[in-house]
């Protein structure tokens, strides 16, 4: 059995489909399955068990002998969440329990970290484990992810193989439930559909023109290919960036969404909301040489390719992956 936590969520549900496509059906989906909207993400997919998140540690103790791999991707991912107790419970303490279970039962582990750990990038974006203590995340979510990375590296006992994946700006099908936290592509598509135009955030940084804020946007299909690679690789434990290695502008993102819809761009700018303005990343880019050095050689979608596939094959029809 292969375990996927956060299975009703965005990346996890796409991973479930990837595993199905590769012939894996004995999957254990772990999540809080109370959201009918999120549960649509795994409709039609094949799996053997559903386990409530609160019951999972007890479940793995009873079923570890039949388990071959754990993808721990479940987390509270809202970057505007300021309930430290909730983030500590879900992103830190729960992840420690999963880690310790993997140690106890000899199970390999891939878990979700985040590029939010890098903050404004004062220390750069290298996935160098020696610099974790120097990082300055901009929000409690990023802090919770960095705390766990630091904790994991300090443990005297670790799973025989483990990898923490620093996801950059992931976009693609099955993010429909994410609301404000969904990708700008989804917001652009929805705005074009409703009004025929897109309003991007202004720049409040003199180094960047409006719309030229840059992020490393990575298509979810590339993300799940990397996760699948690690399921078979099972060596070179550590923390890895997962982006494309190429920063692009929000203007590029919106323009390509219009193009995928065969529409002329109609883009204007509005002030960045004050609650995120002081904690806004103007540039992120994932150095990817660490992943490439261990043998990963699948090409990543360009922004143009990813946006076109997402818009034309999923958003227009409302399809799930």
From TrEMBL:
The entry's keywords: Carbohydrate metabolism, Isomerase, NADP
Molecular function as annotated in GO: ADP-glyceromanno-heptose 6-epimerase activity; NADP binding
Every NAD-dependent epimerase/dehydratase domain range: 2-243
InterPro entries according to UniProt: Epimerase_deHydtase, Heptose_epim, NAD(P)-bd_dom_sf
CDD domains xrefs: ADP_GME_SDR_e
Enzyme active site: 141, 178
Co-factor(s): NADP(+)
Chain residues that bind substrate: 169, 180, 187, 201-204, 215, 280
HAMAP family found in the cross-reference section: Heptose_epimerase
Domain-related comment: Contains a large N-terminal NADP-binding domain, and a smaller C-terminal substrate-binding domain.
Family of the protein in this entry: Belongs to the NAD(P)-dependent epimerase/dehydratase family. HldD subfamily.
Protein name: ADP-L-glycero-D-manno-heptose-6-epimerase
Name of the encoding gene: hldD
């Amino acid at each position: 059995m292969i375990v996927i936590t956060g299975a009703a969520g965005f990346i996890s549900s796409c991973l479930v489909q990837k595993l199905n496509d590769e012939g894996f059906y004995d999957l254990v989906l772990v999540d809080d399955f109370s959201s009918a909207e999120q549960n649509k993400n795994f409709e039609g997919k094949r799996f053997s068990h559903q386990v409530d998140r609160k019951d999972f540690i007890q479940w793995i103790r009873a079923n570890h002998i039949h388990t071959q791999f754990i993808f721990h991707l479940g987390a509270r991912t809202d970057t505007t969440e300021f309930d430290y107790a909730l983030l500590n419970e879900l992103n830190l303490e729960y992840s420690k329990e999963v880690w310790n279970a993997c140690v106890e039962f000899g199970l390999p582990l891939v878990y979700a970290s985040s590029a939010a750990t890098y903050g404004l990038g004062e220390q750069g974006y290298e996935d160098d484990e020696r610099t974790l203590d120097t990082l300055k995340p901009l929000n409690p979510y990023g802090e919770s992810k960095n705390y766990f990375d630091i904790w994991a590296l300090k443990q005297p006992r670790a799973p025989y193989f483990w990898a923490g994946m620093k996801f950059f700006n992931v976009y693609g099908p099955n993010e429909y439930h994410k609301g404000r936290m969904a990708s700008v592509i989804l917001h652009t598509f929805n705005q074009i559909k409703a009004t025929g135009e897109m309003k991007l955030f202004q720049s409040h940084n003199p180094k960047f023109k409006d719309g030229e804020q840059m992020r490393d946007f990575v298509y979810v299909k590339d993300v799940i290919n990397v996760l699948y690679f690690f399921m078979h690789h099972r060596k070179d434990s550590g923390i890895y960036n997962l982006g494309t290695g190429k920063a692009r502008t929000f203007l590029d993102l919106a323009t390509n969404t219009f193009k995928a819809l065969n529409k002329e761009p109609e883009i204007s700018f509005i002030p960045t909301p004050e609650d995120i303005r002081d904690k806004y990343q103007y540039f992120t880019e994932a150095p990817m040489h660490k992943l490439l050095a261990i043998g990963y050689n699948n090409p990543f979608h360009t922004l143009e390719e990813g946006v076109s596939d997402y818009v034309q094959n999923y958003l227009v029809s409302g399809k799930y992956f």
